[in-house]
């Protein structure tokens, strides 16, 4: 039986997607902390505790892979490795690999979200920890060897690629990935103990300057000189008049089919080891993908071409035994994209900010199906306070008619309307859950600079904010109430 034919069989919905709940979207880099960007240290554990106190059962993040051009988590240097700068220094001090003095940093690193500053501060300390680790043996070294065996499908490629980029040694990069894995496992255990599940994000494409393209070029549509034959992106839309030119290479699907989509299966297996649920970014790409000629300066000239998404998802299902996936079915979505989503029992997404630009919108909370994930807005949208400043009278009128007379600020009224949705899961950006100003926006699609820099502060994660969010969560039936 062919993979596509097998995919027609009904696939059960994942149990985590069935129970009414809510959560918060906050990237690791946006966590509070003292070393340049957020990481897997105390700030991450404190945020889990804040979520639990606020009655939230999900923490959604952006991709946690090594960042590429423009510090974008969606332009990754590896589909498998973790961002080295997310490795926290506190656990390395606790294990004796670094002295306590290694934690002392300038105050400017506490509020900044700057990868360059974090890199300058952290890399010498990670190198020192690696040197200390190499002098040891025993239980930690045995765990390291186990990690290398379990991740043999990708770890050597990543280490060779990373060492060539920075002129370092492969063993150092393997050690950093081991630390990332150990710290991630500790965070996930803590989250589970507090009733919080982690939601990850898998970009459908990988960067041209990545370990995947460099080490597995046969899987991508490249010219002889290694440049992409065609580039990824989307055509002009409301975000950009010239479209979005992402610049990654397209897949050579014939080679993926020949190998039984083994690379895809391994990619999602890795994601399932890190997360409880995974959002597939640009799910439309599993039905068709927009191809822009290589060398183009923008995305106005391109064409949609079919992709074998049913075969890919079938291979993933065979590998994982279930599909803990959320389909980001936004953009130029067709009935065929929805049919593919529904065939595999995946929930789609609804963006409530989009609900008031016309009559009887698909995104109105009252029109949401139970099997979907609803957002006031995502990291690509204005935060609610910024959105309200930009919309016209007609949008404001529809919003006011929908939420009724209320003395609540707009951000809280829109959050409440989203939480009242029939959608099984609601995810709000932290910015929208606590009513932050427009300056807290994370990303403006179609722009190459000034994104991914916003960072939360400890003062935002107050007891009063968690109590208000918990009260709303209880009122809308999304919080487990102890007997």
Structural features, described:
Residues 1-7 have low confidence and may be disordered. This protein has a single domain (3-77, 197-475), classed as Glycosidases (TIM Barrel, Alpha-Beta Barrel), CATH 3.20.20. Helix content is 38%, strand content 11%. Helix 11 (262-274) crosses helix 12. It has helices spanning 3-6, 42-53, 90-94, 108-111, 115-134, 139-150, 155-166, 170-193, 211-215, 253-258, 262-274, 309-320, 335-343, 384-390, 393-403, 410-419, 430-434, 463-475; strands at residues 21-25, 58-60, 197-202, 230-234, 244-249, 277-280, 288-293, 303-306, 325-327, 348-351, 372-375, 425-429. The protein has 18 helices and twelve strands. With 483 residues, it is of the alpha/beta class.
Question: How is this structure best summarized?
Answer:
The chain contains 18 helices and twelve strands. With 483 residues, it is α/β, with parallel strands linked by helices.
Write the layout of secondary structure elements.
Elements (H helix, E strand, L loop, with lengths): L2 H4 L14 E5 L16 H12 L4 E3 L29 H5 L13 H4 L3 H20 L4 H12 L4 H12 L3 H24 L3 E6 L8 H5 L14 E5 L9 E6 L3 H6 L3 H13 L2 E4 L7 E6 L9 E4 L2 H12 L4 E3 L7 H9 L4 E4 L20 E4 L8 H7 L2 H11 L6 H10 L5 E5 H5 L28 H13 L8
Helix pairs in contact: 7-8, 11-12
């Amino acid at each position: 039986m062919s993979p596509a034919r097998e995919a027609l069989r009904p696939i059960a919905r994942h149990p985590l997607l069935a129970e009414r709940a809510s959560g918060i979207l906050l990237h690791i880099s946006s966590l509070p902390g003292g070393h340049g960007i957020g990481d897997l240290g105390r700030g991450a554990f404190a945020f889990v505790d804040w979520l639990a106190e606020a009655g939230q059962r999900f923490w959604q993040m952006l991709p946690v892979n090594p960042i590429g051009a423009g510090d974008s988590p969606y332009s990754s240097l590896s589909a498998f490795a973790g961002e080295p700068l997310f490795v926290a220094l506190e656990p390395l001090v606790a294990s004796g690999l670094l002295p306590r003095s290694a934690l002392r940093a300038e105050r400017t690193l506490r509020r900044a979200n700057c990868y360059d500053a974090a890199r300058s501060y952290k890399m010498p300390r990670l190198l020192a920890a690696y040197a200390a680790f190499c002098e040891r043996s025993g239980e930690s070294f045995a765990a390291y060897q186990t990690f290398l065996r379990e991740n043999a499908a990708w770890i050597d490629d990543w280490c060779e690629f990373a060492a060539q980029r920075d002129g370092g040694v492969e063993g150092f990069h393997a050690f950093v990935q081991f630390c990332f894995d150990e710290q991630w496992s500790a965070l996930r255990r803590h989250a589970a103990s507090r009733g919080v599940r982690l939601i990850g994000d898998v970009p459908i494409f990988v960067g041209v300057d990545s370990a995947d393209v460099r080490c597995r070029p046969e899987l991508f549509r490249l010219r002889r000189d290694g440049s992409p034959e065609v580039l990824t992106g989307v055509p002009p839309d409301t975000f950009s008049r010239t479209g979005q030119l992402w610049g990654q290479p397209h897949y050579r699907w014939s080679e993926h089919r020949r190998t039984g989509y083994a690379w895809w299966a391994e990619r999602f297996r890795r994601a399932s080891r890190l997360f409880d649920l995974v959002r597939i970014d640009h799910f439309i790409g599993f039905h068709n993908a927009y191809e822009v000629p290589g060398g183009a300066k923008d995305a106005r000239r391109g064409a949609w071409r079919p992709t074998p998404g049913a075969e890919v998802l079938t291979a993933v299902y065979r590998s994982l035994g279930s599909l803990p996936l959320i389909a980001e079915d936004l953009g130029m979505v067709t009935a065929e994209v929805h049919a593919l989503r529904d065939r595999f029992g995946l929930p789609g997404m609804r963006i409530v900010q989009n609900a008031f630009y016309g009559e009887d919108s698909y995104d109105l909370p009252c029109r949401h199906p139970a099997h979907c994930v609803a957002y006031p807005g995502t990291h690509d949208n204005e935060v609610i306070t910024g959105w309200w400043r930009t919309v016209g009278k007609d949008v404001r009128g529809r919003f006011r008619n929908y939420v009724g007379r209320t003395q609540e600020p707009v951000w809280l009224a829109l959050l409440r309307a989203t939480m009242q949705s029939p959608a099984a899961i609601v995810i709000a950006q932290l910015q929208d859950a606590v009513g932050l100003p427009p300056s807290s926006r994370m990303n403006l699609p179609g722009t190459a600079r000034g994104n991914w820099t916003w960072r939360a502060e400890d003062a935002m994660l107050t007891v009063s904010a968690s109590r208000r969010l918990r009260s709303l969560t209880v009122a809308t039936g999304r919080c487990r109430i102890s007997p």
